[in-house]
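User: Structure with iron/sulfur cluster, tokens only please.
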Amino acid sequence: MAHKISDECIACGACAAACPVSAISEGDGKYVVDADACIDCGACEGECPTGAITE
Ligand code: SF4
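Assistant:
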């Protein structure tokens, strides 16, 4: 299961910079995780200021 970004996302981009496999990119109004690229490392979770990233 890849990590997911909820509507709490404020599109700050902090998670994208933290992802070691560049699985996070800017989507329509929020950032999105590419489920095929995500290795479930959890590095992005702690970077999110709004707690929008969940497993
Ligand atoms: Fe990237 Fe790791 Fe977050 Fe998956 S869990 S989106 S690989 S930082």
